[in-house]
């Protein structure tokens, strides 16, 4: 039985470096979002790689740890809520609407709700996301429904509810 994974993954050549466009931030963010969506549509038709996913739960907290081998282009789903990420192993370049950066483990960083992340794994990587789980949800599919927005309009609804 396949574990839940929030990624579309494909083995491809390294991505081209992201060059910010000299535009107002919102226009740039929307342009990057369109590029990410186009890339996701393209790689969805390619053979998909398997990634190892482990789930951890402790009172009020859920963690999802994903092992990704080197050479993967990974596109995550849109997270509905802010959360914490830890890259405990590896070297990865990520791209979001906020820009691109290369991260080398060990690294801990915040991820904002409403964003989709593209990552290219330069080396084998272990990436863990931490999410609030106040209802102590034990089912992975139910947890995905809490953590992941179906699309950008759904993410906007989640963000409005959090304020």
How is this structure best described in words?
This protein is of the alpha+beta class and 163 residues long. The protein has a single domain (7-162), classed as Jelly Rolls, CATH 2.60.120. The chain is built from 3 helices and 12 strands; from the N terminus they run E-H-E-E-E-E-E-E-E-E-E-E-H-E-H. A hairpin with a 2-residue loop joins strand 7 and strand 8 (99-104). It is globular, with a radius of gyration of 15 Å.
Order of neighbouring strands in the sheet with most strands: 1-4-10-7-8
Can you say what the CATH homologous superfamily is? Jelly Rolls
The SS-based structural class is alpha+beta
Could you report the average pLDDT, rounded to the nearest whole number? 83
Gyration radius, rounded: 15 Å
Roughly how many Å apart are the termini?
Answer: 38 Å
Largest sheet: 5 strands, antiparallel
């Amino acid at each position: 039985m396949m574990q839940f994974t929030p990624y579309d993954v494909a083995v491809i050549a390294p991505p081209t470096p992201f060059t910010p466009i000299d535009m107002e931030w919102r226009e740039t963010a929307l342009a990057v979002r369109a590029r990410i969506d186009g890339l996701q549509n393209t790689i969805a038709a390619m053979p998909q790689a398997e990634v190892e996913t482990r789930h951890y739960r402790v009172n009020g907290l859920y963690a999802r740890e994903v092992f990704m081998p080197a050479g993967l282009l990974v596109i995550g789903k849109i997270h509905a809520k802010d959360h914490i990420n830890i890259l405990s192993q590896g070297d990865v370049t990520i791209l979001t609407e906020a820009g691109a950066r290369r991260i080398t483990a060990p690294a801990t960083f915040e991820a904002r709700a409403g964003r989709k992340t593209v990552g290219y794994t330069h080396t084998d990587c272990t990436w863990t996301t931490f999410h609030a789980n106040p209802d102590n949800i034990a089912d992975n599919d139910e947890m995905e429904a809490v953590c992941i927005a179906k699309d950008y309009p759904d993410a906007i609804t989640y963000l409005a509810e959090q304020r």
